[in-house]
Amino acid sequence: MISFFRKLRQKLIADNKFSKYLFYVISEVIIVILGILMALQVDKWNTEQENKEEAHLFLTRLKNEFLVNREQMVDKIMMRQKALSAARELIRFADGTSEYKQSEQVDSLLALALPVYTFDPSLGVLNQLTSTDKLTLIKNEALNNKLSSWNSMIEDFKEDENMYNAYNHNFFRPFLYKQYNSRNIINSRIRNKVINPILLSSPEEVNREIGFSNKPVDVSVLQQSVEFENYLAFVISWISLINTQSEGVLNYIDSVVEIIDDELIHK
Asked: In whole angstroms, what separates CA 59 from the centre of its chain?
């Protein structure tokens, strides 16, 4: 096309037809400009399509990550609920109103009440989005606000979990180590598989019983202890608080997943 116009210009100049020459020069410039604009438009369209595909991929991965976190949170809530029920039964034991009175029964209740179940969310996809500035691919303002607040919300939640974990390990457990037979509690935990092993490659090692103590255990030591009641009261208070906050985290996750689903449908 450019070669055609070049030859045409040369002919018009040779024939001394300046006005027509000028017309064709302007036409040639317009055609070049239009070609550039079309190329830019095509390039912009391709870029937008690539961004949409990348955003769709990230949204799908992000949804899966939040659903995995949701499943973990539901599991932790259920585990804490069992711990809470056991702690409440131990309070009744301390009051002398529980049907659980034998040492083996108390051991089983303590094995349920003692563990600390923490929420450890997966943040890989979200961290990848924020660290590589890919968050700009997500155009939904409501979703962006949710994602931007997620880390700070989890940090606040983890603060309470960590405080309870410290209380549990620094006060409640040392009391039991001194006043009661912790070996029996641990063996009850293993026997009843209260905690599933994380390293599934060798669960038999983690779940191998250590046996019960052959030394006599006097449950009245706990039943008559005001300190034991106080520790249980704090355990119940902490677990209740953390589980209430966990429900809030679940609602937050559900709202994020709902927005992502809506985005995926309309993309």
From this structure: 15
